[in-house]
Specification:
about 170 residues, Umud Fragment, subunit A, alpha+beta, seven-stranded antiparallel sheet, 3 helices
Length: about 170
């Protein structure tokens, strides 16, 4: 049982380290990070209050055009800015479909019209207070801490192995 538990913990630690390192590298390179088309987002503004606060985590998935409906919350780009908003209306022209989007907490009537190419993700789940978990997972301190713990565990195991060898050598003599 102990061996299985150790392996599970080790696998979780490795996943955390790989996630954190890949997140850091991709963020430096300004590349969007997604896993199997799913991406996690923490809002840095109160633009979607009261539906989504800065403490909440959004789970987003790249949508097909047929997946987008009125009142869906989406992540989109507008003039190289990444924003979150709610679809207020879907305009279906013969040539293409466009979406009228607005953040919930904007007092002005600031709607934006965009195409499917601008849509980067659709919120499939909002996890209340989930931002704390994601911030911890992405923290550099956690990665350093986990690596230090792995190194300590490795050294302890190495020390125990040396002790066993010494005991065996004493018995043989």
């Amino acid at each position: 049982m102990k061996k299985i538990l150790k392996r599970i913990v080790l696998i979780l630690i490795i996943i955390i380290v790989i996630y954190n390192l890949s997140y850091s590298v991709l963020k430096l390179l300004k590349i969007d990070m997604s896993f199997l088309g799913i991406r996690f987002l923490i809002l840095e503004t109160n633009a979607m209050m009261p539906a989504i606060s800065q403490k909440d985590m959004l789970i987003l998935k790249k949508p097909k055009q047929s997946d987008l409906l009125k009142d869906d919350i989406i992540l989109y780009t507008e003039n190289k800015n990444v924003r979150v908003g709610r679809i207020l209306n879907i305009n279906e022209n013969m040539a293409q479909i466009s979406y009228v989007v607005k953040a919930d907490n904007r007092y002005l009537n600031e709607t934006e019209q965009l195409l499917i190419e601008n849509v980067k993700g659709k919120a499939i789940k909002i996890i209340p207070d989930g931002a704390i978990f994601l911030k911890i997972l992405r923290s550099k301190f956690l990665t350093l801490f986990v690596v230090a713990i792995l190194f300590i565990i490795y050294r302890i195991q190495q020390y125990k192995g040396n002790l066993r060898k010494q005991r065996i050598n004493k018995r043989v003599k």
